[in-house]
Design brief:
alpha+beta, 5-stranded antiparallel β-sheet, globular
């Protein structure tokens, strides 16, 4: 997982083959930035903005599955004095469906609590911090991790980790001279024979892409490619590792999605005090990357964040006729794919398999309910040779969309899949589409929690 290979950027080389064809009246392109600021409401509430979800067989512990759930996009490393706390009292959930009915059979839930050693200072830390228990760490957060199981109408909610400490934001080298060791000390084991692990804290944003896609799909002539514009930004990360056996249901395929829930009523008084009350309501949802960006139209993005997978049949028209191929057709002249030309309208059975049902023979649960979630066959053998950052379309069944590894090149895969790479007879140029960014800016760790350590707040040029 920690070996990263940069390939030559192919997008620029494809420019001449694609041609021009800019449509003068075309508006801004739909966002392709995983789930960074993807909907109006969460863009204004970044603490509950889930950016990415990953699920994969642990490379060094293949009897386990690792989940990575990232939140709070575009964290500037030097963003003090408050830096980037988790939302106090919010339910951050990883939901797992292990019988294909599009309902959560198992949920892991993080709930955070704020702690100040003194409120008479503006400082995040009042001196050098060498350990999570140092009194110089003025602000810190603890969390409970609950395991919620649902079966036959019965719900069992058990706290499996209590008052664990989240790794703090990386203030800088003077404040936290050995941040890596500080972060590692936040790893907590739990469960039978301590076979499970959990970690919460700040990490480098592992998603890599060129965000200039917003400028008429890479400058309208693919001149704006090849730069990882998330380089230097951090996120808050929840990492969980549990035995495969604890996830198995009616088949070896599980469906995964994250949600965040807030109290429904917020009251702020004229003293600057905020209270929350009422029932918990879902305000964020994320399964497959890019769905709420390039599939769901802007008028339904907030609604999608509040919706449930069991009700996803309502989004079928958007999957059958997504916006992105029409954008690329208007700009670059690429044909709009159609997997069923004999039926009026664009029919995309290939996208339905990727986004709603799973791929037959790989990660499609038998008799499953079509729904949007990240699906993983937990029995897929680990890739030990000829692994590909393109996952399944690169001949590597252990990668996306069979789960998602940190190293999977989601943008290149998404562009090629939406342009019909899974359909017979697709134009050869589709096999080379990409943004020219093929690896993360920092190496991933080879063991738990796998994500890269965050960029330091003392780095004067984190985005160079």
């Amino acid at each position: 997982m920690n070996k990263r290979y940069r390939r030559a950027a192919i997008a620029v080389g494809a420019t001449m083959a694609l041609g021009g064809g800019l449509f003068a009246g075309l508006g801004p392109v739909a966002g392709v930035a995983s789930s960074h600021r993807e909907a109006p409401l969460v863009a204004a509430d970044p603490q509950v903005d889930g950016t990415d979800l990953y699920a994969f067989r642990s490379p060094d512990q293949p009897s386990t599955i690792t989940f990575v759930s990232n939140w709070i996009p575009f964290e500037e490393p030097a963003g003090g004095p408050n830096f980037y706390p988790w939302a106090d009292g919010v339910h951050y959930d990883i939901n797992i469906d292990n019988n294909g009915d599009a309902r959560p059979d198992l949920t892991y839930r993080w709930t955070f609590t704020n702690h100040y050693r003194s409120k008479k200072t503006f400082l995040y830390n009042t001196g050098v911090v060498n350990s999570l228990s140092d009194t110089t760490l003025n602000f810190y957060q603890t969390y409970d991790l609950d395991r919620i199981t649902r079966s036959g109408g019965h719900v069992v909610d058990k706290t499996v980790v209590h008052d664990a400490i989240s790794a703090p934001s990386d203030v800088g080298d003077a404040s936290m001279p050995d941040y890596d060791a500080l972060a590692d000390s936040a790893i907590t084991t739990f469960g039978f024979q301590n076979a499970s692990k959990v970690w919460a804290g700040q990490a480098d944003d592992p998603f890599f892409l060129d965000l200039r896609v917003f400028d008429l799909a890479y400058g309208a002539n693919l001149s704006e490619v090849g730069q990882d514009t998330l380089n230097g930004f951090n996120v808050n990360s929840l990492v969980l590792q549990v035995p495969r056996a604890s996830l198995r249901g009616t088949s070896s395929v599980i469906g995964i999605w994250t949600t965040a829930q807030r109290r429904s009523v917020r009251v702020e008084n004229d003293q600057g005090q905020v209270t929350r009350s009422g029932k918990f309501v879902q305000v964020s949802r994320l399964g497959m990357p890019l769905v709420n960006e390039v599939v769901v139209p802007v008028g339904k993005k907030d609604y999608f964040n509040a919706s449930k997978p069991k009700d996803d049949a309502q989004f079928l028209p958007a999957v059958q006729n997504p916006i992105l191929p029409h954008v690329l057709h208007n700009i670059y002249g690429l044909p709009v794919p159609d997997s069923d030309p004999g039926t009026p309208g664009v029919q995309r059975s290939d996208l339905i398999s990727v986004f709603l049902t799973g791929l037959s023979g790989l990660n499609e649960p038998p008799g499953g309910t079509p729904s949007e979630m990240l699906r993983l066959n937990i029995d897929t053998p680990l890739c030990t040779s000829s692994c590909s950052t393109l996952g399944v379309i690169g001949g590597d069944n252990q990668g996306f969309p069979n789960g998602r590894r940190l190293s999977d090149d989601i943008i290149d895969v998404a562009l090629r899949v939406t342009e019909g790479v899974l359909l017979p007879g697709h134009p050869s140029i589709v096999d080379t589409l990409g943004d020219g960014v093929d690896a993360n800016d920092l190496p991933f760790q080879s063991d738990f929690p796998y994500i890269a350590y965050p960029h330091s707040g003392s780095d004067p040029t984190p985005h160079s």
